[in-house]
Amino acid sequence: MSLTLFAVQTLNGLQFGLMLFLVAAGLTLVFGVMDFINLAHGVQYMLGAYLTAVLAKVTGGFFTALLLAMPLTLLLGLVLERLVFRPLYARGHLDQVLATFGVILIVNEAVKLAFGAAPISVPVPEILSGSVRLMDGLLFPVYRLAIIGAGLGTALLLWLVIDGTRFGMLVRAGATNAPMVSALGVDVRRLFTAVTAFGAMLAGFAGAMVTPILSVEPGMGDGVLILAFVVIVVGGVGSIRGAFIAALIVGLVDTLGRSFATDLLKLVMSASTANHVGPALSSMAIYLLMAGVLAFRPAGLFPSRSAG
Amino acid sequence: MKTFTVMLAAAAGLALTAGTAAAQEKLKIGMMVTLSGPSAVLGQHQRDGFNLALKQRGGKLGGVDAEVVLVDDELKPDVAVQKVQGLIERDKVDIVTGVTFSNVMMAIAKPVFDSRTFLVSSNAGPSPLAGRACSPFFYASSWQNDQNHETMGKYAQDKGFKRVVVMVPNYQAGKDAAAGFKRFFKGEIADEIFTQLGQLDFSAELAKIAAAKPDAVFSFMPGGMGVNLVKQYTQAGLSGRIPFLSAFTIDETTLPATQDAAVGLLGGAQWAPGSTLPASRAFVEAFEKEYGYVPALYAQQAYDSALLIDAAVKAAGGKFKDKEAMQKGFRNAQFESVRGPFKMNTNGFPVQDFYVVKVVKRADGKFQTEPVEKVFTAHEDVYAKDCPLK
Amino acid sequence: MTRTRRDLLVLGLMLGLLAALPFLGLPNWVLTYTARIMAFAICAVALDLVLGYGGMVSLGHAAFLGIGSYAAGILLAENVNDFFIGLVAGAGAAGLYALVTGAVAVRTKGVAFIMITLAFGQMAFFVANALSEYGGSDGLTLWSRAEIGGTRALARDTNLYFVILFFLALSILIVRLVTASPFGIALRAARSNPERVTALGYDVERVRLWAYVLAAVLCGVAGVLIANLSSFVSPALMAWQRSGEFIIMVILGGAGTVWGALAGAFAVLILEEALSLATPHWKILFGLFLILAVLFTRGGIAGLFDRSAK
């Protein structure tokens, strides 16, 4: 394994991690502020992708589609909040899980009815279609650099909003102690609605951003949802900073595991055994990571809730 | 009390449907395909291919009125077992057909064989059923799983490639694919990469491939995985530099998504819609007219499975309840297959030709694969010799 | 009528109905289908102990079902045909895995517990996927069922049906006895008031761990039964979606009532089958049902019962 390859894989891992961060950010916000487990976050990601794909076809431009898709995902988030989420804030986690799982089933099937089961794809926007030569024979698409940029940009924006605005202050206060915020006379219901809609838009943005590199298909949000949960639990529920760092760690562990686990095992065992064990081990890598972190820090790396 | 009453009513409803399945002299066919989840599009091709053949024959197969009961196996083997038991015992089907994935096939094989019902696969062809566990009740209109991969292995060998990277998902079909490829490719395997099932991003694997600098890449990435891989392979600048050989990765189920990114890439198959055989042309034209999309090999296999049943019932003189006559009928089925001539082996799998196919853009802007080179003639699967049936 | 007595009455009625089913002259598929639901119900009842009483939301419970079925399946593939050996192996393997992973998991709470059990479940799933000798992801077909005392008694569906019903009744009995015992009271207290449990002289984590292990053992038994019933084992049995389905069964039935879990298992699986017969797009209806059930009922089926009884 050459140093160049290692560097390239690290870059790939960071890019994957930032993509995960885009999805996880909204999830951890909603979870942190409302103590609400929103399994429908994955389908909101999928809806963002589908809206972008369809709008890109209609308008012919990726960026136009992206700009149009954002308010639409926000709107869908508001509708969902009104119809399903709102009565559930006061309920236990289990009721939330059950109802939002119902939302997953409905939206996945509805999307299949509307757009068919076959994957659809979106071309890379012209202006970002170039590539950078990373090593002999390998190009790194500029679009992936754009995803890195979007991830970092979102992180920066969230940091500015949450650390520097009144809305952010309420969000932080809500994540630490929601009853207190309400006691201070803040309209908690409006805060919750705003955060949920914002979370839905973040999910939609993540879905929209990946369309040029990943295929758009029914159920595409399900696997991502699990990864996003891994990220927020490792990072500490409700903590944007935790989600950011955990996303990078998960992205790196997953990518480096996939790249090098089998080769490293070949040093200590026969090639065929390594071919057997390596892939199984790298599939488990992020779960091992999560179990390890939770075993020592049950509340994650950056717990934001004051009471454990 | 309300809920309890509802449950009782539901139970009674189930019992009732059991009672109504009176035996009429209609050929009943249970079609089990995957219509949920990311792979639903394969099942859709199978369903439409079969239905087209049935429609063209006025709803009759072998001169007998046929009725199809469609079920979705949801790609869950234990759900499939339960549903196939329903097909056999409740709907009293004479034939179970379809079956998209090998794990579902392995799950339903035993209950279907035990009930002496015929199982006509229009896709999955797992190795146990071709070898030791073969059955006189099993017939495939498709292939044995390894064969399309063997085709690419032989092709890589014939082309004189010295070093090849093999990349497959880490599940049984992926391992079978790698084994099938290596059976006929004798050069060096520069690297063998097992990816996660359902993996979306292949940038790490593509970097490894670029670093290994092989003469070619062989990959098996069905469904959405294939779409992502093909797009990313092109975006990473590898297509055009390193030949991309594949099976079940680039076909008409994924081409609408990959579009231009897949043009020129190679796959192994027994048939492609670009085939110039008259039977094939007629099929593709009729299919596109009926359903508005280009049929992939899954549709062709299902179409042929209907033709196979048609021929078997005809050979049995319409006596589809006569198991022995039907077995003979399946074994010696004569019909004009869309793929060209083939014969049924002793294990119920076809002995047929295999081609390397290539993605092209048609004049109407749609994409399809077309055969470019015949690799195997009358190719028999390697497991047939373990099958005790004679 | 007290709640306990009514619960027992309902439970007895349900089990009695199930025992009578084979004598109603119903077609065989109804029997095997019911047997399958009963096997899943064993696991749901076991999960109720952990989730309903212990307040631990395990999203890895299907792994124990899978481990049990793999233990039985591998033994059968290796020509160890005795049913009881399979049973002990399945229950033991599942219990052992629960003991090792549970020791870590019970230290966490809330969503962290959900995710850590998911992680351990996924690890078992990936291991099963990698078992190429036993079919890997394609699964393993068992060409014959296990033997009891050297006879092929289980080959008859009716016999297997009664064996599964027996284990279902046994599981319910065990869970009820456990929950009524001082241990069960400590377990229930551990979810709301850990300090009190400590004051009672119990180690909270140990109480949770043993409940977790017991539930896993019962699920392992269910796995052995499922393997014999469907003559097939595969990693799909332990996919995380399946664990989610168990949670749905328990919540829908009414967590913490035992018979609720049984009712939930029947409700979910019959509804899935009935809806999927009605339309290929049944998941929309099922999703809608879930949402409405959560929004307009509390405490699941058992909860409905409570209110209509008032």
Walk me through this protein's architecture.
The complex is a heterotrimer of chains A (308), B (390) and C (310). A two-stranded antiparallel sheet of chain A has the order 1-2. Chain A is mainly α and 308 residues long. Chain A has 10 helices and 2 strands; from the N terminus they run ααααββαααααα. Chain A has one domain (3-296). Chain B has 2 domains: 25-143 and 278-351, Response regulator (Rossmann fold), CATH 3.40.50; 147-269, 3-Layer(aba) Sandwich (Rossmann fold), CATH 3.40.50. Chain B has helices at 2-20, 40-56, 77-90, 102-114, 127-130, 147-158, 172-184, 203-212, 224-235, 255-258, 278-291, 297-315, 323-331; strands spanning 27-33, 60-61, 64-72, 95-98, 118-121, 138-140, 163-169, 188-195, 216-219, 244-246, 266-269, 343-344, 350-361, 367-379. In chain B, strands 7, 8, 9, 10, 11, 12, 13 and 14 form an 8-stranded mixed sheet that branches. In chain B, α2 crosses α12, α3 (77-90) runs parallel beside α4 and α12 crosses α13 (323-331). The model of chain B is unreliable at 1-6 and 15-24 (pLDDT under 50). Chain C has a two-stranded antiparallel ribbon. The longest helix of chain C has 27 residues, at 204-230. Chains A and B meet through α1, β1, β2, α9 and α10 of A and α2, β8, α8, α9 and α10 of B.
